[in-house]
Structures are given as C-alpha cells and as structure tokens.
Amino acid sequence: MEDVQKHSVHTLIFRSLKRTHDLFVSNQGNLPEIDEKLEKLRRSIKTRDSYGLVAHRVVKTLDGKKSDKAHAADKPLAITDGSTTTTILSSTSTGTGGAGAVVKHNAGDARRGADKMSFNTNTSLVRASLPNSGGNNTSGLGATNLQLIPKKAPTIPKPMWHAPWKLSRVISGHLGWVRCIAVEPGNEWFATGAGDRVIKIWDLASGKLKLSLTGHVSTVRGLAVSAKHPYLFSCGEDRQVKCWDLEYNKVIRHYHGHLSAVYSLALHPTIDVLATSGRDSTARIWDMRTKANVHTLTGHTNTVASVVAQATNPQIITGSHDSTVRLWDLAAGKSVCTLTNHKKSVRSIVLHPTLYMFASASPDNIKQWRCPEGNFIQNISGHTAIVNCMAANADGVLVSGGDNGTMFFWDWRTGYNFQRFQAPVQPGSMDSEAGIFAMCFDQSGTRLITAEADKTIKVYKEDEEASEETNPVNWRPELLKRRKF
What we know:
- By secondary structure, this protein is α+β, with helices and mostly antiparallel strands.
- Helices cover 19% and strands 37% of the residues.
- The chain has two domains: 39-129, no CATH class; 165-482, YVTN repeat-like/Quinoprotein amine dehydrogenase (Methylamine Dehydrogenase, Chain H, 7 Propeller).
- It contains six helices and 31 strands.
- This is Pleiotropic regulator 1.
- WD repeats lie at residues 171-212, 213-254, 255-296, 297-338, 380-420.
C-alpha cells in the first residue's frame, strides 16, 4: 500500500513539473519587453548624474552665444534654384536692424558656408568647456567632446567645540531605581519618580528634598510638569495616569484606559491635551480637563516606550520596541508616516529645542530625522549599549545614556562624539546597578540631570575651566569619509 502511495505522489509531482515546463518553455529565453517610458527615465537620471555639473555651461553657451539656435535661426530658410541658392538671413545675422536681407550666391559657396557654420558651432561648444577661454580662442579646436568636471567630494562640516561635562552633585533619597525626571518650566525645582512608588520634588539649586507625593502602587515611569497650570502629571506600571494639583499636593484627576503599564507621557505645548504610551502597544491622547480619551493611536505591534509632543506637525511622535518610529496627525488620530530604519527596539525619542528635528535611539544607532516628513539625516554611531534615554539642549549637545551606565556626548550637527564616560556607581551599589534610565537638561541647558539604577540622581555641569586648547576637537575627517552612513 505504501509503495502505491509513493508512486502516485511522485507521478503527480512529475506531471505538475511537466505542465509548468510546457507553460514557460516557449518564451523562457526571451528578454522582457523594453518599456520606453522607463528607458527614457533611466537615461535622464543617468545624464543628470553624470553631466549635471556641466549642463548649465552648455545651456549658457547655447543661450549666450546663440551657437546652435542663432545659426539655425539665421540660415535655415534656403531656396535652391539650379546653380544659385537664395538664403533669407535674419536681422541678427546681417546686423542691419531690419527684418532681414536676401542674399544670392552659388550652390558650391552655400555648401562650403554650411560646413563652416557647423564647424564653428562645434568649436564654440568646445571652447565653452575649456577654462579661461575667450570667444576667439582656438586652442580646443581638436577636441570632439565637452570636458567634464569631476564631482567634488561631499564636504564634512567641522564640529563645534563643546566644553566637557563633569559630575557636580549626587542626590540620594529614593529607595528604588529612579526611572523618570521632569524639570519645572520656572527652572526652580524638578521632580523624579522611582521604583519605590514615590514622586519626589527637589530644589534645583541646592538639591534638597522639598516634597514627596505618594499615590502610585507601582513603579513611576513618566512625569511632566505643565507650563500653563499648576499641574504635575505622572504615569506608572500600575496602569494609572494621574494629574496632581501642586497647590494642594493632591491627585485631582485619573485618566483610565491603558490596559497595561504606562511607560511615557508628554504634554502638548499649546493645547490642553496629554499623550501617554505603554506596554499595550498604543499611545493615547487625553483631554486634560474632561479626562476623555480623545484618540487611541494604534499601529505599533509592541511596547511604545517613548512619546513626545510638539506644536507643529507632526505633533505626536512615538518610538516602540517593534523597531519603528511613527509620526501621528493629532487632529485625525492617524499615523502619517512609519520610519522603519531601525533594526532594534527604539526606547527613546528627543526633540531638538530649536531646530525642526528629532533623534531616535536604538542599540544599533542613534538616528536623526527632519520634520515634518521624517526625512533621514544621519546615523550617529558608537553607543553600542541599550540606549534608554537621550537629552538635547539649544547649544547643539546631544547626550545618550545606556543601560550599562555609559554616557555619550555628541555634537548634534555633525554627530561627533566629543566626550564619553562611565557614570560613577555609588558606594554600596553593585556594578550591575549602573544603568541610566532617564535624563534631561534644565531650562537653561547648562545642567544635565540623570536618573540612575543606583537609586541616585546625578547633576552634571560644563567644566568652566576647559577651553579649546585644553580639550581640542579631535576631528579626523579622513576617517569619517570612510564611514558608511
């Protein structure tokens, strides 16, 4: 029975292969038909790429000297009658200023004149392509083609000099990993949230504890302070999003809707809406006053680890563990663009404070993008750890913090890494507690605050004694040219 079954299956496969062979054997050696439109497009692209640098010179020659058009307009109308040819010349060729003139000459002279005219046209194009060539220069008469200028290599801008940063203060007080930071718009205090379920408010100048807010029943993962209201917003792994009234230090609103832990939140700078994102693969837009879930932004297929909001389109940008970055239309509540350049999870997105750009961080690369379409600008390579957080200031300093405690400082415009170091671990902490979970600059951009796994908050400042002589820019463009962006 088994032999019969094997034989029948083999026969069926053989017949199927034979049918396929018979179907395609008639034209398998033929080339596909040439699409004329695509062929013209290919040639135009190749022409522009190869001869783009000299195309304007040819056009200028044809327009300025009237090499082809003037001769074509001056000589074309020729009436031949036996041994004589009547040529109608335009006013530009005769120089008379009138409508034209009629000249009669022998046919042999006409042929010689036509040959001479075509010869002059070719030599004028050659002379136009030669450097420092005058109108009567005959040094290029033997040339047959235009001389092509080689393309210049792209210039790499030199990075700006930035002072190195150094540790200024270590603040202790939390009993768990510090997971989020938010600086008050007045630049007087900042808030932190941690795994001990407590939100603490610290004086920015002295580093002293001012207030502790309790209410979350799990790790606090996100904080934001309103610039228009006395409100502090928080979210955490307990699926709760809370609005705290800082005049009474109490929770006045809850925003219910997330199905799992909430990892990030952002306030819109001009509209009273709040954006949150989390482990349920969604980002949600809330009306700050009515607590209504205005939009549920769906499309990501994994945890949405970071969300940012800005006043201009795209107003909402999210980064997810599904390795994508999405740009959202806030009015429609729909995704307008999905950036799939990253190969690993995107855990942090930061907006530049003055430029219309943003950066996204992943273990493979930090990538810069231009709004509103999300045009790719460049890769910033070198921070090979899991990058949990980033911060940028108006001076063009981009900082990235890794899961292993490494901090990299970059020049935003060029991607030059001007400083890197391992964040110091507090005495008594394990080496594995060296992760940096959140960071942000204060409102002046002169102080960098980091939240770390050794349960401390660290404040960094620029080294005021440093200068371009003591800390020169080690810029080597010959190495950068060989890098593949």
